[in-house]
Queue: 2 jobs
Job 1
Amino acid sequence: VQLVESGGGLVQPGGSLRLSCEVSGFTFSSFDMKWSRQASGKERELVATISSFGSSTNYADSVKGRFTISRDVAKNTVYLQMNSLKPEDTAVYFCHGAGRGRYYGMDYWGKGTLVTVSS
C-alpha cells in the first residue's frame, strides 16, 4: 500500500496550491479519502473528506469555501485545491483513506507534504 502526496511548497498569503495524492495497493473506489494537517506544536486536524465514489464532501470550518477536495478514480488520485491561503494554513498535509463495506476498519496514511504560507 502506498499513498504519495505531492504539490506542497512555499506560497505567499492569498495564493493557491493543489496537492495530489496518488494511491496504490488497495481498492481506491472502496475508500473514503481524506486530507488532514498538522501544524508544528498542534493537534492533527481533519481538513476535508470525499466519499468513496465522490458523491459527498465535507470540510473543516477553517477551510470551508477556500479548499476543494476531489478524486479521479481512473488515476487513483485524490486532490486538494487550496485557494486564498493564510499563514495559519501552514502545516504538513497528510492524505489518508478509510475503508468502507468489507474494507471497513482499514486505514492507510501517506507520509505528508509540507505547505508553508509566508511572505
Note: The chain has a mean pLDDT of 96.
Job 2
Amino acid sequence: QVQLVESGGGLVHPGGSLKLSCTAYGFTIDQYAMSWYRQIPGANREFVASISRTGGSIDSADQVKGRFAISRDNAQNTVYLQMNSLKAEDTALYFCKARGVGRPTYWGQGTQVTVSS
C-alpha cells in the first residue's frame, strides 16, 4: 500500500525543538521532490520547506528560515524536518508531500505539533 507516514509531533515549550519524520511505504522517494506543509483549523495548508530528489536544492518559507531544516535519507526512504526555536505560531498539523514528474502526488495524514507553555 502506497502511503506516507509522519511522526515526531507533540507538545513542546516555546523555544524548544522537535524533529519530524516522514517515511514512505510502497514507493521509493528517490524519484520525488519532498515537501513539508502545515495547516491550522480554518486556514489553507501552507508551505514550510522542500527538498529536491538528491537534496541539492532546498527551499523554505520566510517564517521558518533559520529555524527549520529539511533533510532526506533516500536509503531510509525518509524525509525529516528539524524544528528549532519553536514559537506558538508554529502550532499546526504538519504534512509531508511527495511530488514526482509524471508521477502521482502523495500526502501523508499529518502529525500534530503544539507549541505552548
Note: The longest strand covers residues 18-25.
